Please model this.
Amino acid sequence: MSYGSGNFTGEEWIDTVRLSPELVISKQSIGVASTSTGLSPGEDGILGVGPVGLTSGTVSGVDTVPTVSDNLLSQGTISEEVLGVYYIPSPETSKNGKLTFGGYDETAIVGPVVYAPLTTTSPASTYWGVDLSISYGGTTILSSTAGIIDTGTSLVLIATGE
Model:
């Protein structure tokens, strides 16, 4: 399996995963790596929260593997396949970030939550992709493009042409 600039190989195991006392997933696929390259020291796992299509080809003989979010929804633990991600804005704080499966933490936001439809523009449509325009300092840089929402990177990547 490839992830960013790294990859790993190993075996698939099926087990019960407890993310919290309220978030228990039975029969969850877990990839147990035996080798890895290109990952940062200290990284000991990846929790994939992307679309299920990204699991295609990751397990021999299986089309796709249900993700944590897919199984939480299908097992009735959450009522919506929504993931709230809260980043702490400063390294000086002692608070932790937060993932909320099935919704979002209303105390961690200011203003209304606005949902954007997923894009059909490839390759962004392979991921959690959205259509957008990009402005900087009041100047429109790109009037129409597609981008992806990726919690696994701190980069902002902008298309090079229009």
